[in-house]
Amino acid sequence: MPMAKNHRSDRPSSDTASRPSPGTILDRLASGPSRAARITHTEHLPPREGRHAVWPDRIRSEVIAAVQTAGIEHPWAHQARAAEHALDGESVIVATGTASGKSLAYLAPVLTALLDGSEAPNGRGATALYLAPTKALAADQRRSVKELSQSLGNAVRPAVYDGDTPFEEREWVRQYANYVLTNPDMLHRGILPSHPRWSSFLRSLRYVVIDECHTYRGVFGSHVAQVLRRLRRLCARYGASPVFLLASATAAEPSVAARRLTGLPVVEVADDASPRGELVFALWEPPLTELHGEKGAPVRRTATAETADLLTDLTVQGMRSIAFVRSRRGAELISVIAQERLAEVDRSLARRVAAYRGGYLPEERRALERALHSGELLGLAATTALELGVDVSGLDAVVIAGYPGTRASLWQQAGRAGRSGQGALAILVARDDPLDTFLVHHPEALFDQPVESTVLDPDNPYVLAPHLCAAASEIPLTEDDLELFGPATAGLLPQLEAAKLLRRRTKAWHWTRRERAADLTDIRGEGGSPVQVVEAGTGRLLGTVDAGAAHTTVHEGAIHLHQGRTYLVHKLDLEDSVALVEEANPPYSTVARDTTSISVLETDVEVPWGKGRLCYGSVEVTNQVVSFLRRRVITGEVLGETKLDLPPRTLRTRAVWWTVTEDQLDAARINPEILGGALHAAEHASIGMLPLFATCDRWDIGGVSVPLHPDTLLPTVFVYDGHPGGAGFAERAFHTARTWLTATRQAIASCECDAGCPSCIQSPKCGNGNDPLHKRGAVRLLTELLRAAPED
């Protein structure tokens, strides 16, 4: 993020001064009686004055001069403190708000080290490594570094090294770049396995920057934690001990999370001294329609359609804005709808709105990023690929289509607006979903609560095992490495020997196979090769879909959106990982249906809740996509269902589950006719509410409810992590179960519908078509269960 835009003086430019206030923009959007009623709450965050400091005297004068040339006379207090720790050789995490200048906090000491190294009489001099969770952020950071270091000559040589880097450039990066910008995936697959070719770079490595580190949670975060331990091990082999500099949006216990991620003690700098413009944050609930969905439930207007309207209106007003959407398909749909409506107003405006998501080809992403930076685009419908730190300063508004899963992510997205210091507008548009409905009517859950603790588990054996193999292939493992990789290592090594993946010779474990050990795992937790989406008539590659999502998104008959065009999937070839599509224009979208069964493998903890039980342990989940629904795009009306023949998939993971007894059912007035529906409704609502208590998304978790489960021999509700080996979400649910299930009961009971709807107990991912469900039974069942629940 270019520092000049984040840290210029607090005086608004003439352009900023001429813009309407965020309150005025919101008033225009809400004009009309039906629109005004959709705003359930408006939060006003007042502006904040900044607190300056002076740079530590060890920061090079050339660096300070370059920063001042960029328009930054003095650093904020937190920037100076973070730089001081870095210069002292202490790993540090800067956990301050969006647009608070975290980049400069770590760049000042990094550039100083690179300048010092350039004057070394022999050798390459100091190097630094920058890790970003997305390619877009790494490319954006390189632009920032180049701008800032123009006056520093050839002393600073930044270069991006990722999957998009042409092969002819890669050798130059290895030999000459001293500030390499990459992502954890490339570090895992490309740099660490080829460490002899990177020996000069690693031997001189002074700093490792980990940007947006709050995104490294769950299975992905656990994988990244082990990749960083492999990096530290190789650096030590080459005689280096780099300092880690981490940047994060405001997070709970940032130093604790940073230590789990890096395996090192990390100092915390969390007192944000940067100024902030006024933020107006509106909660927006789409209205009920005259339509009825499954089981006759009332249907609200979709968040997709509502967000497309808001993006259209903002563009007509000339406001620069981003609509953040949870899915790739949603981003495409919103941009298409907005373009069509803008064309009715002014055909030239339609060209100023686009979609941005993962799965695009590299050249498509770069073109969109340039258009966004230049202002050629006024509106963008984007997935979280643009959430993370990419500089889009000057935005007037952010529209968030559905709660993004965590408060940390919500504030990260809202913070994309107003990045030049001016006031900003953020709008959260609720989906027809238990959690979204709860939040827009309980604003205190968003605005009066701290952000969540980051959940990751580096000791997860499904995560640790492949990284031990990768580490052994890089340098044979010895007993000295056991402490570095964690307490579960000693128990896993014999298992890897038995599987003939590792072989012990004298005092070291060696990788035994010809294939690359780094290919044993996909650190994003997606599993398998991405499925290529190919246009059948031309053979043109449109993009890719993650292997884990292929069964639900590119099955035969699925509607696939790409760059505003609609395609119909004619064939999904799972062996060759290819989906063949043809352009089409049907009046519907598709939603996959699946069935799930679960068996208990091991119960780790069991706690009595009266006569019932709350348990946590290991389970095996079997899932199969069996059909898909066709729904009208705008209304969500179901047009029909088509069967599918796809193979089942099994998952060994971690789960929390609770049981109830016959006596509890009698006390709750639950008879056998409604038991299945009450359990099912409670399961759906609890899955929908869990993201409020753990750093997960409802799509990261799954659930099963059974009136008589063969392993517990009781009515049972399971909620499980949707990743091999678990991701820490179910464990968090176990430890906060009373609070979590109390909120679940409240969300169901307070919903204004009669028999259940998507705002309380119906689920968009239910494999059984939301049948059976019993709203009142779920409330009575949870009330009885919670009666004897111990405190969390």
Word description of this protein:
- The chain is built from 29 helices and 30 strands.
- 36% of the residues lie in helices and 24% in strands.
- The protein is of the alpha/beta class.
- The strands form 6 sheets. A 7-stranded mixed beta sheet has the order 1-9-16-15-12-14-13, with helices on both faces.
- The model is unreliable at 1-17 (pLDDT under 50).
- The longest helix has 20 residues, at 218-237.
Question: Which helices and strands, and how do they pair?
Answer:
Layout: H1 3-7, H2 14-18, H3 22-29, H4 33-36, E1 39-45, H5 61-69, H6 77-87, E2 92-95, H7 102-118, E3 127-131, H8 135-148, E4 158-160, H9 167-176, E5 179-182, H10 184-191, H11 199-203, E6 205-210, H12 218-237, E7 243-248, H13 254-262, E8 267-269, E9 279-284, E10 288-292, E11 298-300, H14 303-316, E12 321-325, H15 328-345, H16 347-350, E13 353-356, H17 362-374, E14 379-382, E15 397-401, H18 407-414, E16 424-429, H19 434-441, H20 444-447, H21 461-474, E17 477-478, H22 482-485, H23 489-498, E18 502-505, E19 508-511, E20 531-535, E21 541-545, H24 550-553, E22 559-562, E23 565-573, E24 578-583, E25 588-609, E26 612-632, E27 638-643, E28 649-659, H25 662-667, H26 672-689, E29 701-706, E30 716-721, H27 729-735, H28 737-750, H29 775-787
Parallel strand pairs: 2-7, 2-8, 3-5, 3-6, 4-5, 6-7, 9-16, 12-14, 12-15, 13-14, 15-16, 20-24
Antiparallel strand pairs: 1-9, 10-11, 17-19, 18-19, 20-21, 22-23, 23-24, 25-26, 26-27, 26-28, 28-30, 29-30
